[in-house]
UniProtKB/TrEMBL annotation:
Alphabetical keyword list: Disulfide bond, Glycosidase, Hydrolase, Metal-binding, Zinc
One GO molecular-function entry: carbohydrate binding
Keyword Transcription regulation on entry: no
GO BP annotations listed: mannose metabolic process; polysaccharide catabolic process
Co-factor requirement: Zn(2+)
Pfam families on file: Alpha-mann_mid, Glyco_hydro_38C, Glyco_hydro_38N, Laman-like_dom
Family under the similarity heading: Belongs to the glycosyl hydrolase 38 family.
Domain named Glycoside hydrolase family 38 central: residues: 248-322
Cofactor descriptive note: Binds 1 zinc ion per subunit.
Name this protein carries in UniProt: Alpha-mannosidase
Entry EC number(s): 3.2.1.-
Organism whose genome encodes this protein: Triticum turgidum subsp. durum (Durum wheat)
Gene3D superfamilies named among the record's database cross-references: 2.60.40.1360, Glycoside hydrolase 38, N terminal domain, Glycoside hydrolase family 38, central domain, Golgi alpha-mannosidase II, Golgi alpha-mannosidase II, domain 4
Length: 1215
């Protein structure tokens, strides 16, 4: 009954779902993948239960707002508007004065206006307006007393209060529509008291007549705003950091509860992998699933969950829910891996005989499956699963008991391995926390980490075997800094090209990379040995420090707490006098162990095959015996001149430029120079100085900044003794208790550091950042003897094993039911991603998968932006079914398989870094979204390996010509001086030099001939060039050579040329093509047509209504000249309607462009007098060419456009 009532209210529009996720997620400490997942779960439920699609984002309480929220979790899920409250108090004051509280938010430079969203900022808070309009039963606001017989009759006063509040808000708001948020936290416990008073207010206010009051919803309000056709101010970037008064920057929660933040991130990566495995074997109706973990993770994204801004018992509850969900998903993962390893396929399986164990406490050196006794002829089987769509190469570290072990790979080959003694601090951490978490003390402790390289296929696993052996793994050599002999000698660490240098005091002083040739130093000089080509010098130090948190005493009672970061003082942590560093060396990696102080331990790792530094830290308990709360940070200090500028990620996706003590949209008064410059970091932070970049990536959400030029700092841990007065009512003092003895929280974590040439760091930040979010999943079992290969498969990939996704494409979801390379468009061959599945249909949907994208885009509101037009790059894409160019946006494709009973996978792809526009000059690099063509050189009996696909056979001279997407790009030299059918010099003195395919904005250009100029030997006539000047894609169905080339009869070199026949023809070379084009975009009915002609140039043009935007982004006019202006010559200049020599237009079968009622006319260039495709003979004049253009009715038209038909007379000559 209640359900039916609610559904009736929803269907009538009286009750509206806004936001629609499982929670109102945070925007500073969450990863964008988690934001997508929790929103998708909520949207799916709303769609299935109510048939509704939310239109409005409602993020009223998160403490600052990210650009990713605006475009990815706003526009990309189909929202028309986003409303929120918490922005910096100075920013709000400025916007109040300029009426810019409501803006168009353009959160992505990549997507431009296509991802704009209307953003409404509340003028004061998300509560009723000023004037006492709180109507809970225990509130003290005066009710509307409308009985004139009573002494407290107050209708006029209450109306005046309401009107005054409305007029005050109208003074800071554009248009005559304003929103009152009638409610706040913990209200409507007795809803009748609210609605009774609001009914009276609406009635008497409207009777007064000065303003019109009505019950509304955010959607109704948004539509009213849109209907005014008002242009709105433009907002870019984000709303971080947030402060609500001069000494209260909400930047502490970026780090609060670091253990919970890490647990959430670990479970996120595990959830991604578990869903894939669940998909491979089929979702169980009665057994374990990933649903419980998905629900717990969704809840953990709440803005008072992963943020660390909850009471301790609530944080414990979040962790408990995650643990329960993990245990259920763990069972599923074990079953899935057992099935896949036994069958080698994704056929349904529910009860494998192989049982795999996992090690969720591996971070504290606890892994019971790997601590087995290998002396009885048993082997430890390590299955390594890769959830990413590309091949992974990594180094695994597993605790083992013995030093007499050997490691074999999936093929049974012995591989190199290294043993590293486990540090005492790690063993102590293990002993205490295993008992805390499991209630029992662990058995005998392992003695070593065994490290070995692993190679894992995409969406698949590899298997490794650890067994006892006579020849053991390499045991790391151990030394300390003061045992190196010469105290003044500098210590060098690193087995590969990356080297770290430590000075005699044990401080990191130099970073050198023999590939990038970067050297960072302080007290020593980079030598020619460490820097063979050139060097870049800067100071380089790594230190720890802690901030003493304000305790709330003094004139300003604001304390540092769970939300607020307010340092009172900073204390550097000195390492002098501590235990000297210990160095472990081996063939795979080197480690430097440092006891920084009694509660900070650090391990720095340099891997032989890696070009980054891994730093592991064990921190805690933070001492508070002096009654001072402390906030621990580590900092990297260099001499780089960074000009106050640094870059931090936005929810793990984009990077945003930050400038210290500066805001782009208002003049900031800096009251807190440290806290006011802290930003959330989910992926990483970097600085640059014009020649190099220093990047740091993190394993969880933290706060960070560049407080001084050349410096990066990360806040790792916080322990505070005072509440900051923002609602928790509890100090941030986390403890771990064992046997009634409680100690402060100890955390273990990692960060990763790399230095690159300027502009090259983006590749590492993106690819490795994705690997950090999706770590390799390890599972363990044991076997007797060596018969694994007889009963199991040792490797598996759900994809074609020879195929990997491009590095800038990530498979975010597979479930049942700024770099020059990575910023280019990417294509994905779905047949190779899912070679065992028949793909029946691809449906592009919104990001939360609750509606088809085409419908979403059609109904989304397009907001006007005030001011001059903004220059932007708009990216267009196509899908052709089998070979699928991926959007530059993160989108979700649902693939429906043609098999009954199979589950529907949902694929979400993302392209990363700054996207360059597709609108490039015609001579620029090839773009990979062109159809996958191949070229066969038919010029000589002896094939050229450079241009032949592997399938070329001995029948080479008889093969037809096709095209290749050549890996190199060449400038297409105009062939204006070549005349059609003119014979050319014999080519055999020079073999074919170059064949290339060129691409341009919304065009595909293919060349079949070689270049005539630029010192290349002429090999044929002017290239046959095809331009698709069109918005929707065309699919190239086939190309085939048709016409032989004559030899140059006066050239004596041709007399002995065996490749010419008696008639002077080269039987192996063709210059013209027969082509068949089929338009594949749904909704556009275009009949296929064929062309068979000699030496032609094809240009296809769409006509547009006057003033509309053409395929080349030019605005056409209602004339032939206007339409022609949308055609570009090779140099980029527009062509006119006057036909150039040797280029004449002949129409093929015209067809309509959907939605415009206009014609597409195709033009072909021919030599004078030749026969055109329509059987008409053209003349050497523009009029002759124009006469061959047909209208829809079939009658010839002139170059003067007729209504609704825009005909372009000729193509440019020099393409």
């Amino acid at each position: 009954m209640i359900k039916d009532t609610v559904k009736g209210l929803v269907s009538s529009g009286r009750l509206e779902f806004i936001n629609g996720g499982m929670c109102m997620h945070d925007e500073a400490t969450v990863h964008y993948i988690d934001m997508i997942d929790q929103t998708t779960l909520g949207h799916r439920f709303i769609k299935e239960e109510f048939g509704q699609i939310p239109r409005i984002g409602w993020q009223i309480d998160p403490f600052g707002h990210s650009a990713v929220q605006a475009y990815l979790l706003g526009a990309e899920v189909g929202f028309d508007a986003l409303y929120f409250f918490r922005i910096d108090y100075q920013d709000r004051d400025t916007r109040n004065g300029t009426k810019e509280l409501e803006v168009v938010w353009r959160g992505s430079k990549t997507f431009g206006s296509s991802a704009d969203i209307f953003a409404g900022i509340f003028p004061k808070n998300y509560e009723p307006p000023p004037g006492e309009f709180y109507f809970e039963v225990d509130d003290t606001s005066p009710v509307v007393q409308d009985d004139p017989l009573l002494f407290d009759y107050n209708v006029e006063q209450r109306v005046n209060d309401f009107v005054a509040a409305a007029l005050a808000q109208a003074n800071v708001t554009r248009t005559n529509h304003i929103m009152f948020t009638m409610g706040t936290d913990f209200k409507y416990q007795y809803a009748e008291s609210w609605f009774r008073q609001m009914d009276k207010l609406i009635h008497y206010v409207n009777k007064d007549g000065r303003v019109n009051a009505l019950y509304s919803t955010p959607s109704i309000y948004t539509d009213a705003k849109f209907s005014t056709n008002e242009p709105w101010p433009l907002k870019t970037n984000d709303f971080f950091p947030y402060a609500d008064n001069p000494n209260a920057y909400w930047t502490g929660y970026f780090t609060s509860r670091p253990a919970l933040k890490r647990y959430v991130r670990m479970m996120s990566g595990y959830y991604l992998a578990a869903r894939q495995l669940e998909f491979f074997i089929g979702k169980s109706k009665s057994g374990s699933t990933t649903d419980s973990l998905g629900d717990a993770l969704a809840l953990a994204q709440h803005h008072d969950a992963v943020t660390g801004t909850e009471k301790q018992h609530v944080a414990n509850d979040y962790a408990k829910r995650l643990s329960i969900g993990y245990k259920k998903a763990e069972e599923l993962v074990s079953t899935s891996l057992g099935c896949l390893s036994e069958s080698g396929s994704n056929s349904r399986c529910s009860s494998p005989t192989t049982k795999f164990g996992q090690c969720p406490l591996l971070n504290i050196t606890y892994c019971p499956p790997s601590e087995m006794n290998l002396s009885q002829g048993k082997s430890l089987v390590v299955l390594v699963y890769n959830s990413l769509g590309w091949k992974r190469e990594d180094v695994l570290r597993i605790p083992v008991m013995s030093d007499s072990i050997v490691v074999h790979d999936s093929e049974g080959k012995e591989i190199e391995s290294q043993l590293l003694p486990i540090a005492n601090v790690s063993l102590n951490l293990r002993d205490r926390h295993v008992k805390v978490y499991l209630g029992t003390s662990p058995a005998a402790s392992p003695k070593f980490w065994v490290a070995f390289p692993a190679s894992v296929p995409p969406l698949g696993f590899s298997t490794y075997f650890i067994s006892s052996g006579k020849r053991s793994a390499s045991i790391s050599s151990t030394s300390t800094l003061n045992s190196q002999g010469n105290e003044s000698r500098n210590l060098q660490v690193g087995q590969g090209r990356l080297k770290l240098h430590y000075d005699a005091a044990g401080s990191l002083s130099q970073y050198s990379d023999s590939k990038t040739q970067f050297c960072l130093l302080s007290r020593i000089t980079c030598t020619q040995e460490s820097l063979p080509y050139f060097k870049v010098e800067a100071n380089f130090e790594q230190k720890y420090k802690y901030y003493i948190g304000q305790d709330g005493s003094g004139d300003d009672p604001q304390a540092s707490g769970a939300y607020i970061f307010r340092p009172k003082d900073v204390v550097p942590i000195k390492t002098d006098g501590q235990v000297p560093p210990t160095i472990l060396r081996g063939p795979i990696l080197d480690e430097v162990h440092q006891q920084i102080n009694p509660w900070i331990y650090q391990i720095t790792r340099v891997y032989k095959g890696k070009d980054y530094v891994e730093t592991e830290f064990i921190v805690g308990p933070i001492p508070v015996d002096d009654e001072n709360g402390k906030e621990l940070s580590t900092e990297i200090i260099t001499s780089m001149a960074t000009n106050k500028t640094f870059y931090t990620d936005s929810s793990g996706r984009d990077f945003i430029k930050r400038v210290r003590d500066y805001r782009s949209e208002w003049k900031i008064e800096v009251n807190q120079p440290v806290a006011g410059n802290y930003y959330p970091i989910n992926l990483g932070i970097y600085v640059e100085d014009g020649s190099k970049e220093l990047s740091i990536l993190v394993d969880r959400s933290v706060g960070g900044s560049s407080i001084k030029d050349g410096q990066i700092e990360l806040m790792l841990h916080r322990r505070l003794l005072n509440d900051d007065g923002r609602g928790v009512a509890e100090a941030l003092e986390e403890k771990v208790c064992l046997d009634d003895q409680c100690e402060g929280l100890v955390i273990e974590g990692k960060y990763y550091l790399k230095i690159d040439p300027q502009g090259d760091g983006a590749r590492w930040r993106r690819t490795f950042g994705q690997e950090l979010y999706s770590p390799l999943l390890l599972a363990f079992t044991e076997q007797d003897g060596g018969n694994w290969a007889n009963s199991h498969v040792s490797s598996f990939s759900a994809m074609d094993p020879t195929y990997s996704l491009p590095e800038n494409v990530a498979l975010l979801t597979l479930e049942a039911g700024e770099h020059k390379d990575l910023s280019a468009p990417a294509s994905v061959d779905l047949k190779r991603v899912f070679p065992d599945n028949k793909i029946g249909k691809i449906i592009e949907t919104s990001l939360s998968a609750n509606q088809e994208r085409a419908a979403m885009e059609k109904k989304r509101l397009k907001w006007k932006v005030a001011g001059p037009p903004q220059k932007e790059n708009v990216v267009k894409f196509m899908i052709d079914g089998d070979f699928m160019p991926v959007r530059g946006k993160t989108v979700r494709y649902t693939i429906k398989e043609n098999y009954p009973g199979k589950f529907v996978p949902e694929l979400t792809f993302t392209q990363v870094e700054k996207l360059r526009a597709l609108f490039r000059p015609i001579i620029s690099l090839p773009v990979p979204e062109a159809p996958p063509l191949h070229y066969v050189d038919n010029s000589h009996p002896s094939p050229s390996a450079a241009f032949l696909p592997p399938s070329a056979s001995s029948s080479y001279p008889t093969q037809s010509a096709a095209y290749v997407h050549h890996p190199s790009a060449y400038v297409l030299t105009p062939a204006a001086h070549l005349a059609p059918n003119e014979p050319y010099a014999c080519p055999d003195s020079q073999p074919p030099a170059r064949t290339a395919q060129f691409a341009a904005p919304a065009y595909y250009v293919t060349t079949t001939g070689h270049l005539y100029q630029a010192s290349y030997q002429a090999y044929g006539p002017s290239p046959a060039t095809y331009h698709y000047a069109q918005a929707p894609p065309l699919q190239l169905v086939y190309l085939q050579a048709q016409h032989p080339v004559r030899k140059h009869v006066t050239d004596p070199a041709c007399s002995s040329d065996p490749n010419y026949d008696a008639n002077g023809n080269d039987p192996y070379r063709y210059d013209a093509v027969k082509s068949h084009y089929q338009e594949t975009t749904s909704g556009r009915a275009a009949a296929p047509h064929e062309v068979a002609a000699t030496n032609l140039q094809l240009v296809m043009h769409y006509g547009y209504a006057p003033g509309s935007e053409g395929a080349t982004r030019e605005t056409t006019q209602s004339s032939a000249e206007g339409a022609a202006s949308a055609i570009y010559s090779h140099a980029g200049a527009p062509a006119t309607t006057q036909a150039a020599p040797l280029v004449y237009a002949v129409a093929a079968a015209p067809h309509e462009v959907a939605g415009t009622n206009l014609q597409l006319v195709m033009h072909y260039g021919y030599a004078p007098g030749s026969e055109g495709a329509t059987g008409e003979t053209t003349q050497s004049s523009a009029e002759g060419a124009a006469s061959a253009i047909y209208s829809q009715a079939g009658a010839p038209v002139t170059t003067q456009a007729v209504p609704s038909v825009y005909a372009v007379a000729a193509a440019p000559a020099n393409l």
